[in-house]
Amino acid sequence: MAQAGQEKDLLTKIGEVSVQVLGILSLLLVIVWSVHFRGGLAWSIENKGLIFNWHPILMVTAFVFLASEGVLAYRLFPGTHQLKKAIHLTVQLVALIIAAVGITAAFRFHNESKPPIDNLYSLHSWFGVTTYSLFALQWLGGCYTFWYPGAAPPTRSWFLPYHASLGIFIYILALTTASQGILEKLTFLQSGGAIGRRSTETILANCLGLVIFALGGVVLALAPRPKPRGPDPDLPEYRPLE
Ligand code: HEM
């Protein structure tokens, strides 16, 4: 019995370390792609491609790296339930702010190119707007219900499983959107002849997609599952299965 418990602890520890390793790896890969292979970053310059390069970096930072930390905040961070809740809320808010700048970079790239490029024509962009809107609504709903002003205890209990399931859905949507973006960018580059189908850049970007989904797999394996409990708002209802 004790051994089974130890194995479970070890597996959990490996999962938690993997989340950090895969998260940092996804950041490194997207930075190397944008900075080394795509020519670097700029916010105000004639070469609008350099403004666009912020988009993948900021979106992966927000909706892959930070969103993963946010989903697992109750498990990864030490402290009281209230503190973990504050971290959960803050990490997701920072993700929303960074993602807003990231999406602005993509719009600026389209609007300021000569001639301008149409906005919101691709499936990726539709998924992107949907992901962002749902992420923002989820944050507002969670903040209102569980933080300030805070709903009545029975309402919290009723809402918690929906908040958790919808959160997981939005997280998967974000990973899917990121991988669509990678595929779309690679397809543009390959069909325009800018890079080869088997180039180092293609391999790196494909690896980025794989790492993002590997991260997602581990996060979902560790993700908190809400257990229906009593109406006491201070009970740590939203916590991982141990
Ligand atoms: C979850 C993360 C992401 C979200 C929410 C997102 C969202 C968006 C949105 C809303 C647009 C439309 C901009 C416009 O129409 O002016 C866009 C454009 C674009 N994004 Fe992303 N993006 C994400 C990640 C990525 C990543 C990782 C890449 C990889 C390079 C990428 C590549 C592109 C490209 C190439 C465009 C321009 C073409 C198009 O409009 O589809 N995106 N993105």
TrEMBL record:
Gene Ontology annotations for the cellular component aspect, listed alphabetically: membrane
GO molecular function: metal ion binding; oxidoreductase activity
UniProt keyword list: Electron transport, Heme, Iron, Membrane, Metal-binding, Transmembrane, Transmembrane helix, Transport
InterPro entries (alphabetical): CYB561/CYBRD1-like, Cyt_b561/ferric_Rdtase_TM
Domain Cytochrome b561 intervals: 18-224
Top-rank taxon: Eukaryota
Membrane topology type: Multi-pass membrane protein
Pfam families, per the entry: Cytochrom_B561
Record field: transmembrane: 21-45, 57-77, 89-109, 129-147, 159-183, 203-223
The protein's required cofactors: heme b
CDD domains from the UniProt entry: Cyt_b561_ACYB-1_like (cd08766)
Main location: membrane
Subcellular localization(s) per the UniProt record: Membrane
Identification of the protein by name: Cytochrome b561 domain-containing protein
Organism of derivation: Klebsormidium nitens (Green alga)
